[in-house]
Amino acid sequence: PRKVKNICCIGAGHVGGSTCAVIASNNPDVVVTVVDLNVERIKAWNSEELPIYEPGLLKLVQQARDGARPNLFFSKNMGSAIFEADLIFVCVNTPTKQTGLGAGQALELDYLQAAIKRIAEVAQNDKIIVEKSTVPCRTAETIQGIFSASGRRGVRFTVLSNPEFLAAGTAVADLLHPDRVLIGRSKTPDGYAAAAALADVYAAWIPRDRIVTINLFSSELAKLSANALLAQRISSINSLSAICEATGADIDEVSYACGLDTRIGPSMLKASVGFGGSCFRKDVLSLCYLAESLDLPEVAAYWKGVIDMNEYQKDRFTTNIVSCLGHSLAKKLAVLGFTYKKDTNDTRESAAISIVSNLTAKGASVSIYDPRAKMDQVWRDIDTYVSVSGSAYEACMDAQAVIILTEWDEFSNKPLGGALENAQRSSDNSSGHPSGASDLTGGDASKKSKLDWAFVAKIMCPPKYVFDGRNVVDAGKLTELGFHVECIGKPSMS
Ligand code: NAI
Question: Which superkingdom (predicted)?
Answer without folding.
Answer: Eukaryota
